[in-house]
Amino acid sequence: MTMASNNSSSNNQQKANLGNFKYEVANSLNVNLKQGYNGDLTSREAGSIGGEMVKRMISYAENNMNGSSNNMMK
Fold it and tell me: Is the pLDDT of residue 14 over 60?
């Protein structure tokens, strides 16, 4: 496998993981997110999905930083 095809495979997996994460968050917020068209969602519903994704990603990053990075934030 070449480096280019390896990167492509990795990118595809990352996109799939992010998509799964989006549906997981939508489900936890009781927002009916479907495959394909979601124009029937309100702006509030759509925004709540993205906002919650960001909150969870920041929390994950904060919880997985090494000690030296945490000391810089104090």
Answer: yes
